[in-house]
Design brief:
The structure holds two protein chains of two kinds. By secondary structure, chain A is of the alpha+beta class. In chain A, about 35% of the residues lie in helices and about 20% in strands. In chain A, strand 4 and strand 5 form a beta hairpin. In chain A, helix 6 packs antiparallel against helix 7, helix 12 packs antiparallel against helix 16 and helix 14 packs across helix 21. Chain B has 13 helices and no strands. The chains are: A alpha+beta, B mainly alpha. At the A-B interface, helix 1, helix 10, helix 18 and strand 22 of A face helix 2, helix 4, helix 6 and helix 12 of B.
Chain lengths: ~675, ~300
């Protein structure tokens, strides 16, 4: 017996020793940096961008891991500004838009080159855009180009309607008036022609419920929409004209997306699907493909043919594809990678990692987390019930619990669109007055159990009052409602938190259910679920519309079943407004209207949460974690390393990056100034 | 014997096709598809994709095309990784898994056999207790615990070994040890048990009575019978080691086939799933056959009809 105890003590001692070693490994906070930080001996960035890239075809991929690689490999008309992600000149030195906002003209620089030395001309962009939208490519991101005239019609394989040698106009189907001037071809500059499905069956089905359409297509000839019909044309070798179907003030920002890259026609046509192979690929960006060992390492190297190669600081970038957070953190700590992508710091480590102030980057992201309601199914078909559930979640407590997110009660993220937020605040305070909501009640939307209980009563349920404004709703059919989320540790934590909140504040115990990602997606998007489901949304471009468009059109992507024609009209009229403030006002009104119906519970604006070694400079925790690589450099001089990176976005600037941005911006700034002067002169003359 | 081998080899083909068919059915039943993302696709775009990948055709046409391809040993292109054929992916990633698998297998055999034989011969000695306790530990510490502990100590505390990825021999040490631990432990216990049983049997007593020296008794008579249970364990074990082990590949970010397989399932990458399933099932059947054949050499009592 004694011997046994001694053995046990020994084992205990060994365990303590082991845990000491382990804790010794993880609490080296006495040094300034986390793990190994030594002066880099080359000019190559080692970066983890996430999973293995699906492809190197920028028009095919949809994921962020790929996007980060591809913006290094391909040039677009405009590039991201490294901090704000606003569009700055890239292949286009300057651009302008028509008065009605539907035609954009881009003036291209003449020294653009592909990696094989071929010049990049306006025709290359025309062909690239046509390819991006072709039904044969079947790009999942095809809809990104749908603002362009006939892009959707071409991408969906539609056809023009020809009758008596003339094409029908889009408004013919509505107005059915014969006296309008009818175009003899559906050119880019002519009024929009009517397009219908090329497939007879689909076409007849659509016409079955639409008398006017039926009359329009009867006895007509159908001419398929061709790539050259799309509103993208080269006025000359270095002038690109893009015509939209209606004005879209966010359009230039959208063109920063890799979907709108310049691709090399000859090599793609020659090699077919193999064009992305390292031995065939021709790229157009600041870097070209070096070595590619799938699932292991991809190297891109500075391309001497790139027009701005002199201002590309890195010799190359090594991307290591990886999924495991812990493994990435280990490599970072061991000094084997220089920077990580967003959300890589595991939640449990956050408290500890935060103390490395020169390395940990936490800023708000252009991405939100929320729960959707299945608004057509009881018991959440009543707006009072939905609002009660939304009000019964203490978002401040959630923020503290999650550590990397910011509380959210509106649908557009906080801290990303400062101008819009200013306008929205004003518009909302006007609107609540109109609706008879007190400012106090409005401010309490973050968490208001008392009001939640009142709403439950208003919805016809019995709420027994408890202390602190809480209540117990006795007759709520909780069994008819589930909170479904896709399997992940952090989603589970949030679901359990919200479940507990509803239990505490409303006395309602909702079941939570998790599902594998690919099983969950169709389940949610077809609104099979009852109650609530988890959702997240990452903006595609820096404009509130990228969030608000989720509820746009009857077949919208909100996974809630919510739709209001008035909401569509509000967004349309906003996008037709040229004045930015005015436009934001209209968008804010639409957001208010949607929020009043509460088809979703906004929970949080995500945070970037990633790390970089202090010698990596020109890389910022911007809202989309998109790094225009030509601004990134490695600083050998220790005294110039980044410090206190919490303030990297606001407190200090990097003169090297600033001057680089300024030099790039110059062409557009000068162009706008010259234009403004011209307009002033004209006005003076007319005065 | 030859007839037996031929028969078994011939069975592998229909078996593999059956496995592929069942897998294909299971993928079809599983909800979700390879192109779904957070964003719901506009119907026209979904239609484009379905047309491009032939998903708009009836199921029997799709099944026929798939089977036709497989019989020609062409699994087609991955749906997730554009322009990469399944054959190419397997060819590229199998060597990673096979390298660490084979090294782990050899390491496990060396440690396991040595510890098992010595423990059996010196039954109830300090070595016996010590090695069997270590084996017990090896069996009960899962590799997703052992791997990170090794990383913590050797990579993040001592900075001796790289914490992950593929590279020179230094990169192999921790994954191989992590992978080998549980197999070494199992082999040690099996060897010890097998040896103990055999060393007490009549024919060993006969061998000793014939005056053979202890070395011959042990290596020629004892070991051959003693390791039969080890062989029946290590045959399939080798197949699964070579095929890639998800946990170790994930922890050490090794681009092996095991990792690929899991990703393929999560991505609903049908051709890749089918390709890997077919490849692995054939691999496992061949190894099982090899094990069955080796019995005949190890144990003269086993005969093939």
């Amino acid at each position: 017996m004694t011997r046994y105890i001694t053995g046990g003590r020994r084992a205990g001692l060994a365990l303590i020793l082991l845990s000491l070693i382990i804790s010794g490994c993880s609490t080296q906070a006495s040094t300034k940096y986390w793990g190994k930080v030594t002066e880099p001996n080359d000019n190559v960035l080692r970066y983890i961008t996430g999973s293995e890239p699906e492809s190197l075809d920028p028009q095919f991929v949809t994921g962020q891991p790929e996007a980060r690689i591809l913006i290094g490999l391909y040039t677009r008309l405009v590039e991201f500004e490294p901090k704000t992600m606003a569009p700055i000149p890239e292949m286009a030195t300057n651009w302008e838009q028509s008065e009605d906002g539907t035609v954009y003209t881009f003036y291209l620089r003449k020294n653009g080159k592909f990696s094989n030395g071929d010049p990049i001309k306006a025709q290359d962009f025309v062909w690239s855009f046509q390819r991006a939208l072709s039904p044969e490519l079947a790009s999942r991101y095809g809809f990104l180009g749908y603002d362009i005239k006939y892009a959707e019609a071409y991408n969906s394989g539609q056809a023009f309607v020809k009758k008596g040698g003339k094409f029908l106009r889009a408004d013919d189907a509505d107005a059915a008036s014969d006296d309008q001037a009818q175009p003899t071809n559906c050119g880019i500059n002519e009024p929009i022609c009517l397009t219908v499905s090329s497939d007879e069956e689909t076409r007849n089905k659509a016409a079955a419920d639409d008398e006017k359409l039926k009359a329009a297509i009867e006895g007509a000839e159908f001419v398929p929409v061709k790539p050259e019909n799309i509103g993208v044309e080269a006025a000359d070798d270095y002038t690109l004209k893009i015509t939209l179907k209606q004005s879209a003030p966010y359009f230039v920002g959208l063109l920063t997306h890799q979907f709108f890259s310049a691709l090399h026609r000859a090599s793609i046509e020659k090699w077919g699907k193999d064009w992305i192979k390292p031995e065939h690929i021709v790229t157009s960006g600041p870097f070209k493909l070096g070595e590619w060992k799938p699932y292991d390492e991809m190297t891109i190297v500075r391309d001497p043919n790139y027009w701005d190669a002199a201002n590309v600081h890195l010799d190359g970038i090594k991307f290591y594809p990886m999924d495991e957070q812990t493994t990435m953190m280990n490599l970072y700590k061991a000094g084997r990678v220089d920077a990580l992508y967003n959300h890589t710091v595991p939640a449990a480590w956050n408290e500890f990692i935060r103390q490395f102030k020169d390395e940990y980057l936490l800023q708000p992201e252009m991405s939100i987390e929320y729960y959707t309601f299945s608004v057509k199914k009881p018991p959440v078909d009543k707006v009072e019930v939905r609002r009660a559930f939304a009000l019964a979640v203490d978002r401040e407590a959630l923020e503290k619990y999650r550590k990397t997110v910011k509380r959210l009660v509106n649908f557009t993220p906080e801290g990303i669109f400062p101008e819009y937020e200013k306008v929205r605040k004003r518009v909302f305070s006007e609107l609540i007055k109109k609706e008879g909501i007190s400012q106090e009640e409005w401010n309490d939307r973050m968490f208001d159990p008392k009001h939640a209980c009142e709403l439950m009563e208003k919805a016809g349920y019995t709420a027994k009052k408890q202390d602190g404004g809480k209540c117990t709703v006795t007759d709520f059919p909780a069994d008819k409602m589930t909170l479904t989320y896709n399997t992940s540790e952090s989603n589970k934590q949030v679901a359990e938190f919200v479940q507990a909140q509803w239990k505490q504040n409303l006395g309602i115990e909702v079941q939570i259910k998790n599902m594998e990602w690919k099983t969950f997606l169709p389940y949610r998007s077809s609104i099979e679920y009852t109650g609530a489901a988890r959702a997240g949304w990452v903006g595609d471009f820096v404009d509130p519309f990228t969030f608000l468009s989720q509820f746009y059109t009857a077949q919208n992507d909100s996974s809630t079943g919510w739709w209001d024609r008035k909401y569509d009209e509000m967004l349309d009229s906003a996008n037709k407004t040229a004045d930015p403030t005015k436009r934001f006002e209209l968008l804010a009104e639409a957001e208010f209207m949607m929020l009043q119906d509460q088809p979703v519970i906004p929970l949080a604006t995500s945070g970037t949460s990633w790390m970089k070694k202090p010698y990596v400079k020109g890389m910022y925790p911007n809202p989309g974690t998109m790094h225009p690589w030509k601004f990134v450099y490695i600083e050998q001089d220790r005294s110039k390393w980044d410090k206190a990176v919490d303030g990297i976005m606001t407190d200090y600037t990097d003169p090297r990056v600033e001057s680089q941005i300024k030099a790039l911006m110059k062409t557009q700034v000068d162009f706008e100034a010259a234009k403004a002067k011209q307009t002033d002169e004209k006005e003076d003359k007319t005065d | 014997m030859l007839k037996f081998i031929l028969k078994r080899l011939l069975i592998i083909i229909p078996m593999a096709l059956l496995v592929v068919t069942v897998t294909w059915g299971l993928i079809r039943i599983a909800p979700g598809n390879f192109y779904s993302t957070e964003r719901k696709l506009p119907p026209a775009i979904e239609e484009n994709i379905r047309k491009k990948y032939g998903l708009d055709k009836p199921w029997y046409v799709q099944y026929g095309t798939m089977m036709g391809n497989i019989i020609r040993l062409d699994f087609g292109d991955s749906l997730k990784y554009q322009g990469q054929s399944v054959n190419e992916i397997i060819r590229r990633h199998f060597p990673y898994s096979a390298t660490i698998g084979l090294l782990a297998y050899i390491l496990a055999l060396i440690i396991g056999l040595f510890a098992g034989i010595v423990a059996a011969l010196k039954q109830n000695s300090a070595f016996d207790y010590g090695s069997m306790a270590a084996a017990m530990l090896g069996l009960s510490v899962p590799n997703f615990v052992l791997g990170p502990i090794l990383v913590l100590f050797f990579s993040l505390y001592l900075y001796w070994l790289p914490p992950a990825r593929w590279g020179g021999p230094l990169y192999l040490i921790m994954p191989v040890v992590t992978l080998a631990a549980i197999y070494a432990a199992y082999i040690a216990r099996l060897t010890r048990a097998g040896m103990l049983e055999v060393m007490r049997s009549d024919y060993i007593r006969t061998a000793r009575a014939k005056g053979l020296d202890e070395k011959t008794v042990l290596l020629k008579h004892g070991l051959r019978g003693g390791i039969v249970p080890v062989v029946s364990f290590t045959g399939p074990a080798l197949a699964s080691l070579l095929a890639g082990t998800v946990v170790v590949e994930k922890v050490f970010a090794i681009p092996g086939l095991g990792n690929m397989f899991i990703q393929a399932v999560l991505n609903r990458d049908e051709p890749l799933i089918l390709g890997i399933v077919a490849f692995l099932s054939i691999l496992i059947m061949i190894f099982n056959l090899a094990v069955d054949i080796s019995y005949g050499f190890l144990d003269p009592r086993i005969r093939y009809e």
